[in-house]
Batch of 3 targets.
Target 1
Amino acid sequence: MNDATVISAKDLSLTFQTNDGPVHALKDVNLGVNKGDFVSFIGPSGCGKTTFLRCMADLEHPTGGSITVNGMSAEAARQARAYGYVFQAAGLYPWRTIGGNIRLPLEIMGYDKADQDQRVKRVLELVDLAGFEKKFPWQLSGGMQQRASIARALAFDADILLMDEPFGALDEIVRDHLNEQLLNLWDRTNKTICFVTHSIPEAVYLSTKIVVMSPRPGRITDVIDSPLPRERPLDIRDTPEFLEIAHRVRDGLRAGHSYED
């Protein structure tokens, strides 16, 4: 695997100015994400996980430090379409078919019709939704809608996938299934994935690297390189190795809270 750093944050800080005074969302965050990594960000609500992801995507702008994506500024990376972004809600347009929703960014980017057709077919197969192209979002379950949302983010074949708690609203059985499918997708595409979650088991199961964050102002309290093998059946969650990592994540979350006190 190429160890090239694709996302690099150095002393990254972000302070929001509000009517009630400044809100320090991120403070002195330093992190490198390598090509092909699956990195999960975990921490309590309001710790800056999503804000950090949005800085990568140029949706928020740091007030201190720097962040680069593929060796360029976040703004240049956005303009170069270096990443796909999957939000907490599937965000599919109800008046468009599943194929039409996936096709939308391709239309905006000016891909020709034949290329659009080919890409839509390929990503629907990748997320196991082949045959659903002509269905409308309301005809699909929540889990299937999120898979369609992932397909849309993959359609223009960006190397980086930014995912903001995409499975948070789904029940545990569906979530487990999508976790398995996401790992399979990552293995087949070798994308670099940055994934925000509140779930310790999800973070440990999915990741090659787990970034534990503290309450506001968001700091990184621990970065855990997972020793788990790349192939991970769901029952790996019952192994001592898995439970040991989960314990370290939990300790990191506790330490972050005591740091605030």
Target 2
Amino acid sequence: MSKKGRILVAMSGGIDSTVTAMMLHEQGYEVVGVTMKTWDYASSGGTSKETGCCSLDSINDARKVAVDMGFHHFIVDIREDFGDYVIDNFVDEYIAGRTPNPCILCNTHIKWSSLLKRADMLDCEFIATGHYAVINESAGRKFITKAKDDKKDQSYVLWGLSQDCLNRSIFPLGPYTKPEVRQMAADWGYTDLAKKGESYEICFVPDNDYRGFLKRRVKGLEEKVAGGLFLDTKGNEIGIHEGYPFYTIGQRKGLGKAFGEPMFVTEIRPDTNTVVLGRIEDLVRNGMTVKQINSMKYESIPADFEAVTQIRYNSPGSLSTLRPKGFEEVEVDFLSNVKGVAPGQSAVFYEGNDVLGGGIIFGSR
């Protein structure tokens, strides 16, 4: 075993995880690569070509690097766990009128659990991924800090990691920018990899048609929800929609009807199959309720704490006051009004560049 120790590296076949593995190998770690098969797109009934981290090409790309660099590589099939938890939650949230973020749920409950389980089986002390984030420590607690590259920072999607996960995790790319990572790949002779594009779609919806996925997944859904009412903010009927699960808060395009002025989805009411539309100013909220809290930097979220709250990936965040109600719920008061608060999405609280913690948005006001 190397002096640095044995480390399990999650390898999707993309540039970030590949450079992560190569960096750690060069630094003297005994690297063990693992590629997780989370989803078989053909089983969803989709017609698009399978792409992303679960495709055969991606698995082969990861394996090739491991062979080139001389370390072991394994494929782990977690489709059953992934489907039962992540996909079922994805469907259930839309049926409940909320907008889920399956990638965050997968990180928190599936990928890290699977990685740590395999790390123990393979006698690996640490696990590493290609996320752009930094792990820091204060007063005996580990926490996430934003990466050097603002455009690639992924601290928002890691708010749910526990202390046990953070204690065994390494994010080598946090101190680097994406162009620097591409240059590393080129310097190692992987010029094609250095030019490889980004993958932004949900892995089990690679065609980005989540409505089609829901229709295929829930038999008879379309017939059950079609023909609901569009209402304006005063309760007046202004049209017919295709079914409330097929709309999200803040949506403007794809409403299926012209209203003479820009209209946005401001509220979804699953119990009556109605969707409320309003003007852009009707999206404004001054607060929200966040539940399923994971406190990261401190043992609990401090009372009446002023933080920057981010409600979607790559948003700048908004200055706010946090008012915790026990350990599982936080009331957030925005110091300036915020548009498009969507129940089901994640809210992440920052103290400067440090992640205080986060949770799931349950309601707004």
Target 3
Amino acid sequence: MRLIAAPLISLIIIMLGNGFFNTFVSMRISIEGGANWLTGLLYSSYYAGLMIGSIFMEGLIRRIGHIRAFSIFASLTAVIVMVQGMWLSMASWFLMRFCMGIACAGLFIVIESWLLLLSSPHTRGKVLSIYMVCLYGAQGSGQYILNFVDLKATTPFEVTVILSALAVIPVCIMRASYPNLNETEMVSIWYLLKKSPLGFFGCLASGFILSAFYALGPIFGREMHYSVFQISLVMGLTIFGGLALQWPLGHISDIIERRKVIIAGSFALAILAFVLTFARFIPFPITLLIFILFGGFSFTLYPLSITYCCDFFSAAGVTAITCACCIVYGIGCIIGPILAPIVMALVPPVGLFLYITIIASVLGIFGLVRSICRPPPPKELHEEYVPLPRTTPQAVQLDPRPDEES
């Protein structure tokens, strides 16, 4: 813990600002009277920058070093946020959100490679677990900053800039050698589709669902006439629910056939989302409980799908497969915020959850059809479930499974 404390503290600080600011952007656009499809485009731009940055950032970090790279990306984040606060136009915000995605990709890669350096094959699983708790804990806690700022003023931009600047300090005072950035292996996503169609579409559907929820969940809250505090509870508890159910559902998938867990989880998610379409008739405390369960099943869909894909390959191919799954998830994140506003326009204000109901139901039905047409993967290739974060392909280097097998 002493060795990994500094990068984790930097991660917590930057994710407090990132989690809060992403929700604030949606709410600010709604306050200014922007259409839902504009919010979707902004989030698609952010995820496009995150995916592109994840693919092409490694070479830059190798040339300039990790500490300087983190300082540059944190400074760029602060500048981008300030520029976004100075010009309230969709054209400038679209560009700034794309640049923010690239900068965040660099920040994630630096932190993840620091943790990779400071862990051994025997401790990598523990480090990954701590990383997940810090990542989602900070992201969920950041939602409650919404209650302490004026959403119509410049204060949210200033708070995010302060947190971006503070995040530089822990990494810069680390007493450790520069980490070596591992070369990211990759396989064709079409080969992944051929080998494991259910796993492929599970990753894609996860991107469709989670990106749409992050982008339009706050707008759903506003259209339901929730207070800012209630919106922060919805967003924060959903994220915490996703963290809480990672290990129970993962353990179940290690005991019984994983495909059945994905199918059951998809239908459970569809049912929960459908129930949320009647949120206006449900008491708010019960709605919060439903959101916790909703977060649990939606956040576990991605790591379950990755692990199911890995069940069709030997341990030597786990890293390459998980990287390909991360790209598929990123594609879903780009498309999801564009599709969801279409359904929201047809069925306001609950169209978001009708959209999620459709996506999850289609995935569950597809899984049922595949279970009839194709036998499960061989038991000798059955991989242990590992809850991987949805950040960058570099994060999969923390996956302990290849080293344990070798």
